[in-house]
Amino acid sequence: APLWNAGLDYRHGTGHGVGAVLGVHEGPQRISTNYDCRVGLKKGMIVSNEPGYYKDGHFGIRIENLMVIVEKNTPNKFGGKSYLGFESLTWVPFQTSLVKADLLSDAELNYLNTYNQQVQDKILPRLQDKSDEAAKEWLIRSTEPLCR
């Protein structure tokens, strides 16, 4: 992870459960070192994904998305086990005007552009029957690929 490689950390959990009792940081599942979590991630659970970085006394950056835990189709089932992964549930474009593309690796830039294209692919058809041209234009503009 790029933060770890630079000797940095964002000092908060990466994710928590959603929808059990409508609390802010719900369990039972968490992706965090700050809580005594004894519940493993299981297929079908919904979890927030909220990485970020805070520089004490200066600024903070944080994004958040909701994801569902899914079984992944892998070429191998080592030890007879299936593998889990994440799929996005919420589809909102990354605000690319806040991103310095020259600081991103090729993989990070590709991830961001692929995600934004998926947002457009999933949301634009839902707007096609609507008369709100401004919403369509905003979505198309907001999901344009970020270039260096």
Q: Would you kindly provide a brief summary of this structure?
A:
24% of the residues lie in helices and 24% in strands. The two termini are 22 Å apart. The protein is an alpha+beta fold and 148 residues long.
Task: Offer a few descriptive terms.
148 residues; 24% strand; single chain; alpha+beta; 3-stranded antiparallel β-sheet; globular; 3 helices
Structural overview:
The structure is a single chain. The protein is of the alpha+beta class. Helices cover 24% and strands 24% of the residues. The chain has 3 helices and 7 strands. It has helices spanning 2-5, 106-127, 133-142, and strands at 15-17, 26-31, 46-49, 52-55, 59-62, 65-72, 83-88. The strands form 3 sheets. The protein has a 3-stranded antiparallel sheet with strand order 3-6-7, with no helix packed on it. The protein has a two-stranded antiparallel sheet with strand order 1-2. Helix 2 (106-127) packs antiparallel against helix 3. It is globular. The mean pLDDT is 85.
Q: Low-confidence parts lasting 5 or more residues at pLDDT below 50?
A: none
Structural class: alpha+beta
Average the pLDDT over all residues and give the rounded result.
Answer: 85
Task: Tell me the number of strands.
Answer: 7
Q: What characteristic shape results from the CA principal axes?
A: globular
Give the topology.
Layout: H1 2-5, E1 15-17, E2 26-31, E3 46-49, E4 52-55, E5 59-62, E6 65-72, E7 83-88, H2 106-127, H3 133-142
Antiparallel strand pairs: 1-2, 3-6, 4-5, 6-7
Helix pairs in contact: 2-3
